[in-house]
Amino acid sequence: MEALIVPETTSEVGRQIPIPITTPRLILRRLCAKDWKDLVELDSEDLSIPLRRRGNEDDEQAIIQWLEHDSSVKLTTPDEPFSLGIEVQNGNKLIGLAQLAFTDAGRLQVWINIQVSPRYQRNGVATETVVALLDFCFNDLALHRVKAWCDSRDVAARGLCEKVGMRREGESLKDRLINSEWVNTVWYARLDEDHRETNSGNPPESAA
Questions:
Q1: Degrees (nearest 5) of the Cα angle 107, 109, 114?
Q2: Mean pLDDT over residues 192-198, rounded?
Q3: pLDDT higher for 78 or 192?
Q4: Helix %, strand %, coil % for the chain, to 5?
Q5: 75 with 100: CB under 8 angstroms?
Q6: pLDDT of residue 60
Q7: pLDDT at residue 207 in the model
Q8: Using a CB cutoff of 8 Å and minimum separation of 24, what contacts does 57-61 make?
Q9: Do 85 and 23 meet the contact criterion of CB atoms below 8 Å apart?
């Protein structure tokens, strides 16, 4: 059973979720078994690739097992982040990972998170990825709210959120213990109405 986008009017036909997502330089697509080598490389760059079996002495096997599990996860799977590999067009190589996770029962709000290899940072790849995700969430899925958070010390991440039009909504003081140090978390969000005002056009369809 595939998840479908359900139109607002009954006279229209539901359609498949438009994945992969393409941008001028990138392809955001579902992961597959052959991606394990690229994920091992990304994991070695301390990007915190979300292995389900972290602690396994064999990191390669852990990633392969995580990929097997991820293949069964759909956008609508409860309590599971939906992962997309970030691939360079015509490069056939993963350079990062993007994730979406619904945060409400009505499935109208999501967290987004991206991680890009340091080798591809500071050239607009992260911005291009987040802009594509926001368009996907608001234009294709008709979501109400997209949220993100970052370490307050991460100037690049804060700048990225603000550059793509996410509103800084607050800061939690010393709420996470990292390497024996309490650090702050900054919270960002963007509403569908903000996105419509910035990107005028036809109203999106409803998603389910």
A1: 115
A2: 94
A3: 192
A4: 30, 30, 40
A5: yes
A6: 86
A7: 42
A8: 60/36
A9: no
